[in-house]
Amino acid sequence: MILQIIADGLIVGSTIALGAIGLTMTYSLLRFANFAHGEFIAWGAYLALTFLGFFIALGGGGAMAPLGPFSFGWQLLAALVAGAIATALLALVLDWLLFDRLSAQGSAIVLTIASFGAALALRNFLQFVYGSLPAYYTRELQIAIHIVPRDVGGGLRATPDQLFVLGLALVLVVGLHLFLQRTTAGRAMRAVAHNPALARVTGIDVASVVRWTWILGAILAAVAGTFAGLVGQLRPQIGFDLLLPLFAAAILGGIGSVPGAVIGGLIVGLAESAAVPLIGAEYRAAAAFGVLIAILLVRPQGLFAERAK
Amino acid sequence: MSTALAIAELEAGYEPGLAIVRGASLEIAAGEIVALLGPNGAGKSTLAKAVAGLVPIFSGSVRLGEKEIAGAQAHLLARAGLGFVPQTENVFAPLTVAENLELAAAVAHVKAKQRLPELYALFPDLAKARRIDAGRLSGGQRQMLAMARALVPNPRVLILDEPSAGLSPKLVEHAFAKLAEIAASGVAVLLVEQNVKAALAIAARGAVLVEGRVHVDAPARDLQVPGVLERLFFPHAEAAAP
Ligand SMILES: Nc1ncnc2c1ncn2[C@@H]1O[C@H](COP(=O)(O)OP(=O)(O)OP(=O)(O)O)[C@@H](O)[C@H]1O
Ligand SMILES: [Mg+2]
């Protein structure tokens, strides 16, 4: 039982972590809480659905031939990439239309409220385009495989899709970490987050770094959305429902810290999955709220606060 | 000698219609150190930031060599040969010393493998600390890193805003000796300073900024006469005295 709770928590948590990374990166560069980030997750998931249909049609239609043990074929992987690129474009358009203009004069609160409005518009537009009925990438049924037998810690079962989600999330997080630590673009991002004026006089094109931050955040959000759709179902509220866990994770980890967002995401995921046997499945969503309240009371700067100011 | 930086009738400030720098003019030749002095709030930092592209310029001209640069974006100025060391928070604290310098080299398309050893030779203290996060450096080391970072792209002009702030007299002497060395290699240095004595000791000229205007621009030795600067800093004091 306990192992199963941990495994479920990590799977949910990896989706939350990918979303929280984008949220925390936007915050650390632009200094505002982007409520529209959840909608990047939802749009990413649905855009992938559209591209999936396109790639299946391209392959001659019919059913998608699964790859090995997974429920999906190459078409979903292609749709994941295409959906992520399209979501990045969506984020750039939103920045150009809204945030870039407002940040020229507006304060953080103006940007935050604007992002709230953008979130509403994006969510309603999504519902208008795709309808409000749940959708699925694949109707293929998956058998959970025994990873740990039942007599050890209650046993552990997971579907190959869940393991795929966990594995790819790990690869992305490690890749992002290396990008931020080792590459010039990544270091420039950290430099701008630390001190934009100093970054400019060092020769860094801050506007371009900001654009790349939107692109990266949106890509990770789209992947998170596709993951959520893959291990669950697609609903237009998928992003909105993740918003609270995302904020809880980002604040828990220390806003602005990418490793913090990852750890925070996993902790919130674990709290959600532990809440099911402890207080009942209907209160699962309250777990993130509980974590958020607890962290604000005990350590408001978060676990890995980068700027202790 | 050729003029490296020419500021003429510069007006600049943080909000439209509220000029802090009000018609300042100043020229610096290659290899020359000019000290920019003046009372608190005179607009010295604002002038330095305006030239570096961080504060809006309302009118007037700034020329880097032959090129008009007033209103150009800060990151392009940095790449075009204008180095600026801000007064505070002048290093990237979460990055190591080496990463600070490598980043500056990469964005300026300078080969770090060639340039960093030269800078480590100029600042041996940094060579020893290259793997340390810049946020954990001592005040003196941090100031050296800030200077080295600005020097990475081989700037023609180096502007420093109070590099002596927070340093012990011994460290000030050390830092200013480095500055003299840098200027001797042909870099034009604009040195904004409160530490008048130390600044005039290495500067060829001193310019006194009062209320956003350069009131006096004179050879350093003329300004080292006791009492002269006090009168220049507070031009109305005598009239007010009984
Ligand atoms: N970021 C800012 N926004 C608005 N006004 C500012 C800002 N920074 C400085 N000022 C104002 O500009 C004026 C000149 O400040 P500045 O920092 O240029 O003076 P300074 O000569 O460098 O003084 P000090 O010797 O104390 O460093 C001051 O009246 C100050 O209040
Ligand atoms: Mg100042």
The CATH architecture of chain A? Orthogonal Bundle
CATH topology descriptor of chain B? Rossmann fold
The number of helical segments of chain A is 11
Looking at the overall shape, the CATH architecture of chain B is 3-Layer(aba) Sandwich
Shape of chain A: globular
Kindly report the name of the CATH homologous superfamily of chain B.
P-loop containing nucleotide triphosphate hydrolases
> How many helix segments of chain B?
11
Rg calculated over all Cα atoms of chain A? 19 Å
Distance from first to last alpha carbon of chain A:
42 Å
Biggest interface reads: A-B, 18 and 28 residues
Distance between the termini of chain B: 47 Å
SSE string of chain A: HHHHEEHHHHHHH
Mean pLDDT of chain B: 91
Averaged pLDDT of chain A, please? 90
Strand order of the largest sheet of chain B: 6-7-8-3-9-10
Count of discrete domains of chain B: 1
The beta-strand count of chain B equals: 10
* Uncertain stretches of chain B: none
Describe this entry's structure for a reader.
The complex is a heterodimer of chains A (309) and B (242). With 309 residues, chain A is an all-alpha fold. Chain A has one domain: ABC transporter involved in vitamin B12 uptake, BtuC (Orthogonal Bundle). Chain A is 72% helix and 2% strand. Chain A has 11 helices and 2 strands. Chain A has a two-stranded antiparallel sheet. Chain A is globular, with a radius of gyration of 19 Å. Chain B is α/β, with parallel strands linked by helices and 242 residues long. Chain B has one domain: P-loop containing nucleotide triphosphate hydrolases (Rossmann fold). In chain B, 38% of the residues lie in helices and 25% in strands. In chain B, β4 and β5 form a beta hairpin. Chain B starts with a strand and ends with a helix. The interface between A and B is medium-sized, with 18 and 28 residues. The site of adenosine-5'-triphosphate (ATP) has 11 residues of chain B, from α1.
